[in-house]
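Handout, section 4.2: multi-component inputs.
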Amino acid sequence: MITAERKPMEEIVECARNFSRVLLVGCNECVTVCAAGGRKEVGLLASALRMHFMKEGKNLEIIETTLERQCDPEYIDELADSVGQVDAVLSMACGCGVQEIARRYKDKHVFPMVNTKFMGASERQGVWAERCQGCGDCVLGITGGICPIARCSKRILNGPCGGSTGGKCEISPDVDCAWQLIWDRMKSLGQEDRYEEVMGARDWRTSRDGGPRRIIREDMAL
Amino acid sequence: MKTQSVLEKVLKSGNLAVTSECGPPRGTSAAAVREKAELLRGYCDGINVTDNQTAMVRMSSLAACILIRQMGLHSILQMTTRDKNRLALQSDILGAYAHEIDTVLCLSGDHPKFGDHPMASNVYDLDSVQLIQTVKQMRDDGKFQGGADIADPPKMFIGAAANPFADPFELRVARLAKKVNAGVDFIQTQCIYNVDKFEQWMEAVVKRGLHKEVYIMAGITPMKTAGMAHYMKKRVPGMDVPDEVVDRMASVPKEEMAEEGIKICIETIERLKKVEGVAGFHIMAIEWEEKVPEIVKRAGLYPRPEV
Amino acid sequence: MEKSNNTFEPVVVAFCCHYCAYTAADMAGSQRIAYPANVKIVRVPCSGKVDAIHLMKALEKGADGVYVAGCLEGDCHFNTGNIAASRKVTKVKILLDEIGIGSERIEMFLMSAGMGRRFAEVATEFTEKIRNLGPNPVKAAADKAVG
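Output:
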């Protein structure tokens, strides 16, 4: 999923300060699962904002809603009525959702309420960790199912580097050395002999380096 | 001979080679570079110039290499893949060779987190193994990594680092093999304090015959103080300093610590000379370059052979 | 803020677990142990059922202080509801500090069903603490705007 964290309250307050009516929009997908921008978080943030401004003697009117998906035009359309009633939209979705609102409602301010973090998995309740960088040319099949691009701090494809210590990365004892994990997996799969195959320089065009990416599926077109 | 590199000639001649290191200043003084390099004249076959070592901004490795080369000394261009993408790396190699710098060391580099710009983006377009491949392709095939022909290809003698002390230990020989597969010519190892462990690694290297495919130079760094020994043990990633080394440094009075550090260093060299597969020494006297001549002399590595 | 405002009677909302604090409140009553009338009790099936939004809404709607009372450690009828509640209280405390309301306006307490006296003490002490803090700044500002 795409993970996110609520922005610091100070920053949020500054976004909302100049408006008297805002629409606070959550998203039912990833940000709900990582408890950053779902229905619950919309309720909490709305309450916190109202209290903050009431305290200053200002009445901020907040329309609260949560869409099934903020990254899909058909759901964004549902907001048309409420967007018409407000001065600005505060989005609790990931960056994709914020941009979809901006694209659809061209004359309305939209502000992100969360910082979109990474594509990750839930390691345990309340802990999410980065797993994928969306490089566009997956190597997991030859790295034992562990991604060196997302999980090695230097995205080294022929690791581990000289900083790997006790299974941990040189940048922090809290970070696993991806290449230790890869090597452990290779061993348990009986693929030790494959380790010495050099992985050549990558073509990063499939990644962000090739410019903004699109997927076009003619078979899906209406 | 693959190149005109003096280091290659010395290694090929069968003599124990000696390289040393010079960290460029955190400023613009060419005099500072020359002063350090001058201390090393006649005592080594090549001078490594570090590339923003420990991820701290310093004068560029290439610029300092050129200054040193202009003194008639042989500089070794260290390149980390942390700060530059493949365009910048390759263009630096062309520039270096144009200035008669013919030896390069390919590194991945310390993570920016350790330096004075922890907020910097880290590039890692290539890793150290891929940089070796790239330089080799430039030299042997006369082609850029992207495939285009190079006019007057750079004939670089290609080095890389190896850390026998990092984890997992069982991979440390395999990773060296990977660098050999990629086309590396010589290796400079991480500073050796745990000689037993180094010998264990070297034994495995020899067993696979890798020492016949690549020259391995043992890394040596003299300790100045017990505090430095302690710091290196605790704080430097991938460094293995056994307790007995720290204790030995701490066992002598403060004014004798420097001499004790030099002694340890010379004893280590003497012991390593007997280890099969050791082709030379890389003496990194960090901010202590003036001690290199003494170490080289006392370790019986002086004078340097004429090649 | 005027701490010695004699006319200020704080409104305190207490979310009380059915299996402990709520019963303890009953016991206090039957034993005739007095506790302030300021405390409005909301019975919940487990302290873990209290969500952050309930605490926020109570304050937003004018409570001056809010607390959650759950079972003693290890005694939760649903195993870990009290621990979950305490984490939520901590989270809301941080949020309240961020918006300038102050984390001391909410609290988590643990007690057993038999602790009638403890219930009364908690109710009294918390009410006094809120009395000293003065009115919820949200409500105070709203009153000022109206009056």
